[in-house]
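User: Sequence in, structure out. Go.
Assistant: Echoing your sequence, followed by the C-alpha cells.
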Amino acid sequence: DRELAEGVLFLPSCRVSCFVVELVKLTAGSLQEATTATVDCAIQLFYSVRNVIELYLHVVPTFHQQGLENFPQQSAIHHNNCFYLAHQLLMLGHQFRRALPANSWLQQA
C-alpha cells in the first residue's frame, strides 16, 4: 500500500515576503516560456531559473545575516520563504516535467 496521505503536498498557511511570491511567478513564467522555445533556448532558460534560485538562497542569508541572527520574526519569515520556495519548485517540477524537452538535454549543458 504505497498511497500518499491526503494533503501531503499542501503547503500550510504561513506568511512569506512579496519578493518570494514574485520570484516564483518569474520562475513559472520562464519555465512556461521554455516549453515553446527551441531546445537550446529551453536549456538556457532552465539553467537561468536554477541559477536565480541558487543565487537567492546564497545571497539572502549573507546579506541579511545580522537581522536573521537578531530578530526572530525575520528568521521566521526567511524560513517560511525557503519553505514556500521549495514547495513551489516541487510543484513546478511536476507541472513542467512533460512540457520541457526530454531529460537527455540536461546532460548536454
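User: And one key feature?
Assistant: The CA atoms of residues 57 and 82 lie 8 Å apart.
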